[in-house]
Amino acid sequence: MINIVLFGKPGAGKGTQAEFLKGKYNLTHLSTGDIFRFNIKNDTELGQLAKTFMDKGDLVPDEVTIQMLQSEVDKNPHSAGFLFDGFPRTIAQAEALDKFLESKEQNITATVALEADDEILVQRLLERGKTSGRPDDQDEEKIRNRYQEYNEKTAPLMQYYNAQGKFYAVNGIGSIEEVTERLSKVIDNL
Ligand code: AMP
């Protein structure tokens, strides 16, 4: 069983790459952003709560996010492994994930980051916002806020996983195929 955390700033290509990797390695893809958006679309209580944070580009509170993620993992008891996309995003989430997996006699195999320059990513997100319909992709101020959240709360996770000997990084700039190839090389060598 392998459990991979796909790591990277907003717009780095996590979702795109996850689509390829999940099939290649037979992993269950869990994107917390997608799950929140699904709940917003269906106007659930969770969706209404998440929306107030997401629309501003703020992170959704840990307690809510952790509980949601755990229940999604529990919905897939026969999974051959998970591809976590957009989770964890804070140290508290990473610690909760480690503890939760440990309780199932599992662990994170590796965290792989897609690296890219902020300015390229901001432009990418603004471009994506023209078609994605996502309010958090359409306003440069909200996008900049997402980067601030990333720098303050998510970036420290690199050190967290590095200390466990589980952090890898690949260049996220290139064609989709090139980046998939780089990620696959890391995963194949685990
Ligand atoms: P994403 O689709 O991964 O870019 O996530 C979109 C938005 O969903 C983020 O800006 C947050 O508001 C929220 N979100 C997604 N994942 C998390 C998480 N692990 N912790 C807190 N908020 C999250």
UniProtKB/TrEMBL annotation:
Family that this chain belongs to: Belongs to the adenylate kinase family.
Subunit description: Monomer.
Catalytic activity: AMP + ATP = 2 ADP
Region (NMP): 31-60
Gene that this sequence comes from: adk
Organism in which the protein naturally occurs: Flavobacterium buctense
Keyword Acetylation included in the entry's annotation: no
Keyword Transmembrane: no
Pathway it works in: Purine metabolism; AMP biosynthesis via salvage pathway; AMP from ADP: step 1/1
Alphabetized PANTHER family for the sequence: NUCLEOTIDE KINASE
Subcellular location: Cytoplasm
Pfam families assigned to the protein according to its UniProt record, in alphabetical order: ADK (PF00406)
UniProtKB keywords: ATP-binding, Cytoplasm, Kinase, Nucleotide biosynthesis, Nucleotide-binding, Transferase
Residues that coordinate or bind ATP: G11, A12, G13, K14, G15, T16, R128, G174
InterPro entries, per the entry: Adenylat/UMP-CMP_kin (IPR000850), Adenylat_kinase_CS (IPR033690), P-loop_NTPase (IPR027417)
Domain notes: Consists of three domains, a large central CORE domain and two small peripheral domains, NMPbind and LID, which undergo movements during catalysis. The LID domain closes over the site of phosphoryl transfer upon ATP binding. Assembling and dissambling the active center during each catalytic cycle provides an effective means to prevent ATP hydrolysis.
Taxonomic superkingdom: Bacteria
MF (Gene Ontology): AMP kinase activity
Residues binding AMP: T32, R37, D58, L59, V60, G86, F87, P88, R89, Q93, R134, R146
EC number, as in UniProt: 2.7.4.3
Function in brief: Catalyzes the reversible transfer of the terminal phosphate group between ATP and AMP. Plays an important role in cellular energy homeostasis and in adenine nucleotide metabolism.
Protein name (Swiss-Prot/TrEMBL): Adenylate kinase
